[in-house]
Every structure is written in structure tokens, then in C-alpha cells.
Amino acid sequence: MHAHVLFPPLDDEGRPLPWFDRDTSLALLRTLLLHGVTTVRDPGDATEAAVAVRGMLERAI
Q1: What are the helix (H) ranges across 1-61?
Q2: Count of domains in the chain?
Q3: Other beta carbons within 10 Å of 53
Q4: CB 30, CB 61: distance < 8 Å
Q5: What is this structure's pTM?
Q6: Residue 50 lies in domain
């Protein structure tokens, strides 16, 4: 499934900051999982960022 998982907060000029909104990302992933979605791809973000977040989430379980 195509989803936008990494939600970076914005600075005062509307530019994304270099970190993501962990709580919003987790809420989205939980909602998707509750609806049976077990695999998502966020093509709008860098693969390295998505892999890093995936690793962080795996360690948090």
C-alpha cells in the first residue's frame, strides 16, 4: 500500500525539519494494521529514512 508514513514537522517558513512526528506515524501504522494492512511503502520519503524508522519500530515492539 502507498502511504505517507513519515510526517516531518515544519519550520516557521513551511520547510520540513530533519526529524519526523513519531506519534502521528505510529498512530497511522496502528490504524492501518487494525484494518489488515501489513505492508506499506512511503515513496515520498528517502528509503534510508523509512528503513531507519522501520528498525526503530521493530526494536520498540
Answers
A1: 22-34, 47-60
A2: 1
A3: 19
A4: no
A5: 0.66
A6: 1-61
The DSSP line for 48-60 is HHHHHHHHHHHHH
Q: Rounded distance, CA 38 to CA 1, Å?
A: 9
Cell representation of residue 30: 496502528
Residue with cell string 519526523 = 20
Per-residue pLDDT, 36: 94
Q: Is 10 within 8 Å of 16 (Cβ atoms)?
A: yes
pLDDT tens sequence for the chain (61 residues): 788 888 777 788 878 787 778 888 888 888 999 999 998 888 877 777 778 877 877 776 5
Nine-digit cell at 17? 525539519
Q: Quote the Cα angle for 21-22-25, to 5°.
A: 90
